[in-house]
Each structure stands twice: as structure tokens, then as C-alpha cells.
Design a protein that fits this description.
Keywords: Cell membrane, Glycoprotein, GPI-anchor, Lipoprotein, Membrane, Signal. Helices cover 45% and strands 9% of the residues. With 470 residues, it is mainly alpha-helical. The protein starts with a helix and ends with a helix.
Length: 470
């Protein structure tokens, strides 16, 4: 960078500001302050690009929701599908598409311009800092490179370059401010102001500064071979060459390399129009339809082709009253929808509370009068205990009632009352035996087959117990 070459050329401030016999002028603060003003505008380009890149998609998303709600209202018959209403809806949809096209078409150019502008602004800032800090701290006869003005023998303070400072520090910092309007770069394309007859930007003969000295033949360096240097500082706005330093040292029109920061920024920013700010403004207004306050969208002229109408393109005007009516209907729809949602949430919450506070239902109790006869019919101890809800009582004196209902038995065993509580399989173990092998107590010959009495009772009891055991 040019500035790095300058830094290498002047190693330290002591060498820069030493007194000498020749005229070594200082620069008036006014020129550098003007340059810093340009730098501030340049920095806005980057912030503007950032704002557009975030705000346009944000408002576009809001408008998509508005379009969805309007379409839903058409389907429900809440909005009449008149030509005016349909035109307004199609216009809203078209603006969503156009916002995407505008952002995609202009944002890359803004980003490129912001890169060039940031470099140019930084060059201005560094040059300003170098001239401002190049001074001694002595009183009378002190040396300095930035003077209060073009004739006063005093070095400049931060108050003389308000565009260049943040507090007392000489630095440019735009912060994270939101920039929604395209920056005006007239100051970069027009001539630097203050170049009238009065030498307001000309050299101050005081200061003893080598950075802007008119040494011998008015060059920052002078050698016998005539190869004197010409420097462009502050991003190319400040020229120090072989002529006496005057107002012409400051200019946006200096002859310089075609790839300089000024030329590059001008070229890239030339494509900047009001397209993105206008797009953002339109999206914001349309996205406010249905909110608390009517956005007051004025009569809007639009081409019929943008509204999906066939035939030759013609201009159609969507009246302000159409947008106002849609706003009113949409606001009512959204309010009622939210009210219904709130009611539904309250109803669900109440049902959950009622269920949580409800007492658990009483368990079903056994009706022993139904099952006594079933258990009494079982005479064998093994068969009785193998049955899910019966238990054999050896101390019972009545032989016909030794097998009794035990309502707690299924609960203790954690088995279903419809299943026999036994580890044995519920198959008939006697059915394949011959008559001479079919003997009690396990088997009994009935008719032409050998049967297992306990198997029959188990099967019958499994069905019956399902009636009274929970």
C-alpha cells in the first residue's frame, strides 16, 4: 500500500518534525476533515449492504405470511374474489418475487463497492492519524504536521477534525448503525469543496513538517538527479508533488492509476440505484396489512402482466381504498383466529386440570355368590389349587365345600382371571388313554372317551372368572 511506503520512508516522528532551515509546511486541518467526511460516507456503503441483506428477507417473510392469510380468507369466503381484491392479492405476490430479484441483482455489486470503499476510507483514516500525531509536545517553537488552519502557528487538536475522531481518538468508526438509504457519494465524484480563491486548504508555512515540505523545488524529497517523489495520500485525495502546496493539492480528480481505490469505488458504486431502498419500503408497508394501524398504501399503478392478466399489457391502478379494506378484513380475521386459539388453549388446560383432580375409580369387587358353586364342584386338592380363583381348605369339615373361592389369589399371582393359575399346560392328559388305563382320580371314562375332570373345570372356570375378577 502507498501508506506503508510512507511509513517506511519516515521511520519515526522525531525525524519527521525536526526543524530545518528550509520551509517545511504543515497541512491545515480543514482538508483532512473534509476527507474524513468522505470516508464516513464510504463506510456507510458496507452498512447499507448489510442492512439490505438482512431487512429485505425479513420483511419478505412477513409478507409471505400476509399472502397466505389472504389466500385462506378467499377460500373460506371471508373476502369476495372481486377484480380489485384479486388484483391487490396478485400485486402482493408479485412484490415478493421482485424483492428476491432486486436483492439478487444489486447486492453483489454493493458488496464489491463496499470492499473498495472500506479500503479507501481506511487510507484516509491512516493518513489523518499520521499527520495528526506527527508533532512534538514542547511549547514555543514546537513542530507539527497538522495546523489549526492555513496560517495560525498552532498544531491542530481533535476539535479541529470532528469528522476524523471518536472521542479524543483519531479513528473512523461507523459502528453497527443501520443504513436504510443508499449513501450519496456526490462528495467522491464532485470536486473537494473549499478550493476557492482563499487558500483555506493551502499549506501553513509553520510547523516544520517534512511530510508536506516544499524543500528546494517543492517536493517531499529532492535529489540532484531530479528523481523527486510524488505522493498520493488519503486514498488519492491528497497530492504532494513538485509544485508549491496549495488548494490544488486536494482533489477527487487527480491523475492516478486506473485501479486506485477512488476509481474502483466510483465504478462499482455506479450501479447503485434506489431499487433496494424502494423494495424494502414497499415490503414494509405491505407487510403491515392486518396490523394495528392501517399502513395507508396509496394508489398503486401496476402492469396487468404483473397481475397475471392475459392479453396486451396495460396499466392498472389499485386504489388506496382496496388496500384499506383488505387491511380491515385481515385484521379482523387475525384477531378472531387468535381469540379462538386462546379459547382452545384454555379448554385443553381446563380438561387436563379436571382429569388431574379426579378421584381414581373403585376397583371391581368379586361377587362370590356367583363362583361358590364352581369351586365347590372341584373335589381334588390339586385341581382346586390349580384353578385361578379357588383354594383348597383342608380344615373345612364339609367335604363338598373344601374348595372355595379365593378372590385375592389372582391379585397375588399377578395373572389374568381368565387364565388358569398353574404352570401346567391346559391340555386334556386323558383323552388318548384306553378304557382299561382310564382310572380315577386323574381320569374318568365317559361314553367312548377317557376325560380329565380337572381340565374341563379349568376351561369352564377360565370363562366364568372373566365376569367377576378385575
Amino acid at each position: 500500500m502507498q501508506l506503508k511506503a510512507v511509513a517506511q520512508l519516515f521511520i519515526c516522528f522525531h525525524a519527521i518534525v525536526i526543524a530545518g532551515s528550509r520551509t517545511k509546511e504543515s497541512l491545515p486541518a480543514a482538508g483532512l476533515n473534509l476527507a474524513c467526511g468522505i470516508a464516513k460516507t464510504l463506510r456507510e456503503i458496507g452498512h447499507f449492504a448489510t442492512t439490505m441483506a438482512s431487512k429485505i428477507p425479513e420483511e419478505e417473510t412477513k409478507l409471505k405470511v400476509t399472502a397466505i392469510n389472504l389466500k385462506l380468507m378467499f377460500k373460506k369466503g371471508l373476502i369476495e374474489p372481486t377484480d380489485d381484491n384479486l388484483n391487490a392479492y396478485m400485486y402482493i405476490s408479485s412484490q415478493i418475487d421482485k424483492s428476491q430479484q432486486a436483492l439478487g441483482g444489486h447486492l453483489p455489486g454493493f458488496i464489491k463497492a463496499s470492499l473498495s470503499a472500506a479500503m479507501l476510507a481506511e487510507q484516509i483514516s491512516e493518513t489523518t492519524e499520521m499527520f495528526f500525531k506527527a508533532r512534538t509536545n514542547t511549547g514555543a517553537g514546537q513542530s507539527y504536521c497538522m495546523a489549526e488552519d492555513h496560517n495560525t502557528a498552532k498544531h491542530a487538536t481533535a476539535s479541529h477534525i470532528p469528522n476524523c475522531v471518536a472521542g479524543e481518538d483519531v479513528r473512523l468508526n461507523h459502528g453497527d448503525a443501520e443504513v436504510t438509504a443508499a449513501p450519496d457519494l456526490t462528495s467522491l465524484t464532485a470536486e473537494v469543496p473549499g478550493k476557492g480563491s482563499a487558500a483555506t486548504l493551502g499549506a501553513n508555512s509553520n510547523g516544520n513538517c517534512h511530510l508536506s515540505a516544499t524543500m528546494q523545488s517543492h517536493r517531499i524529497l529532492n535529489h540532484a538527479n531530479g528523481n523527486e517523489a510524488t505522493l498520493y495520500l488519503a486514498g488519492g485525495l491528497l497530492k504532494i508533488a513538485g509544485t508549491a502546496y496549495d488548494n490544488n493539492a486536494w482533489s477527487t480528480q487527480h491523475d492516478k492509476q486506473p485501479n486506485s481505490a477512488i476509481t474502483e469505488t466510483r465504478s462499482r458504486y455506479a450501479t447503485v440505484t434506489s431499487a433496494l431502498p424502494n423494495t424494502l419500503d414497499t415490503l414494509k408497508k405491505l407487510a403491515k396489512l392486518g396490523e394495528d394501524t392501517d399502513p395507508q398504501i396509496e394508489d398503486t399503478k401496476v402492469q396487468s402482466t404483473d397481475l397475471g392478466l392475459s392479453g396486451e399489457a396495460k396499466e392498472i391502478t389499485i386504489k388506496k381504498t382496496v388496500f384499506s379494506n383488505l387491511h380491515k378484513e385481515l385484521k379482523q380475521f387475525l384477531t378472531e383466529t387468535q381469540t379462538e386459539k386462546n379459547k382452545e388453549r384454555q379448554t385443553v388446560a381446563r380438561d387436563m386440570l379436571v382429569k388431574a383432580l379426579a378421584k381414581p375409580s373403585e376397583p371391581i369387587k368379586c361377587n362370590t355368590s356367583v363362583t361358590d358353586d364352581v369351586c365347590y364342584a372341584i373335589k381334588e386338592e390339586t385341581a382346586c389349587n390349580a384353578t385361578a380363583a379357588c383354594s383348597y381348605n383342608k380344615t373345612e369339615t364339609d367335604s363338598n365345600k373344601k374348595c372355595k373361592v379365593d378372590a385375592e389369589k389372582p391379585k397375588k399371582k399377578s395373572v389374568s382371571a381368565t387364565q388358569p393359575q398353574t404352570t401346567e399346560t391346559t391340555t386334556d392328559k386323558c383323552k388318548d388313554k384306553k378304557k382299561d388305563e382310564c382310572k380315577s382320580p386323574d381320569c374318568k371314562w365317559e361314553g367312548e372317551t377317557c376325560k380329565d375332570p380337572s381340565f374341563l373345570l379349568k376351561t369352564e372356570f377360565a370363562v366364568i372368572t372373566a365376569v367377576f375378577i378385575s
